[in-house]
Amino acid sequence: MSLVRFENILKAFRAGGEPTPEEKEGLFREVVLMTLARATSADYNIERVEVETVQRIVKEVTDVDVSADDVNVAANSHMFEREPLESYLSGVGRKIDASQRAMIMRCLADVIRSDQKTNLSEAKYFDMVARALDATPSEIAGFVPE
Q1: What is the DSSP annotation of the chain?
Q2: Which of 137, 4, 16 shows the shortest CA–CA distance to 66?
Q3: pLDDT of the chain along its 146 residues, tens only?
Q4: Among 51, 85, 110, 146, which one has the highest count of C-beta atoms within 10 angstroms of its own C-beta?
Q5: How far apart are CA 26 and CA 47, in angstroms?
Q6: pLDDT value at position 29?
Q7: 98 lies in a domain?
Q8: Is residue 141 in a domain?
Q9: Is residue 23 within 8 Å of residue 95, measured between CB atoms?
Q10: CB-based burial label for 7 (10 Å; 0-12, 13-18, 19+)
Q11: Contact assessment for residue 88 and residue 82, using Cβ atoms and an 8 Å cutoff
């Protein structure tokens, strides 16, 4: 199953209830790719280093290899024509663990910083993701009690 189909996100977004542990892991993997891939285009200037950073992080965090094409497809997915990214993230934010939200926020900061410059649209994107995931300040800072 390809992460870029976002099947777990679509299922969780439409369905109520708690996902199974397997669905939750699939959901986390897809949210990582979707969120980080969209960050590459947050400033409307996709840098190669940003795409490479997304590829590296997705592999490190999810143990799934994604190509540069996968990242670009995820960044421009047609699913965002139906609902904005913020809606999807809001729908799934509490279906993943606090440690996973913290990981996504840390990884997102790494992608945004990867081209050595941050602009207002990237900062707004980061803030939108944090709000949509309902990430707490401690999660954003990476402080998640065990």
Answers
A1: --GGG-HHHHHHHH--SPPPHHHHHHHHHHHHHHHHHHHHTTTS---HHHHHHHHHHHHHHH-----HHHHHHHHT-THHHHS-HHHHHHHHGGGS-HHHHHHHHHHHHHHHHTTS---HHHHHHHHHHHHHTT--HHHHHT----
A2: 4
A3: 467 667 777 777 676 678 888 888 999 999 999 999 999 988 777 889 999 999 999 999 999 999 999 998 888 877 666 778 898 899 888 889 899 999 999 999 999 999 998 899 999 999 999 999 999 999 899 887 76
A4: 51
A5: 27
A6: 93
A7: yes
A8: no
A9: no
A10: middle
A11: no
Flag whether 146 is in a domain: no
pLDDT at 6: 73
Residues 77 and 47: their CA atoms lie apart, in Å, by 18
The domain of 38 spans: 3-134
**How far from 108 is each of 18, 96, 128, CA to CA, in Å?**
25, 16, 12
pTM: 0.89
Our count of domains for the chain comes to 1
**Torsions phi, psi of 43, nearest 5?**
-100, 10
Report the distance separating Cα 115 and Cα 48, nearest Å: 9
Cα–Cα distance between 70 and 73 in angstroms, integer? 5
CATH number at residue 76: 1.10.3680
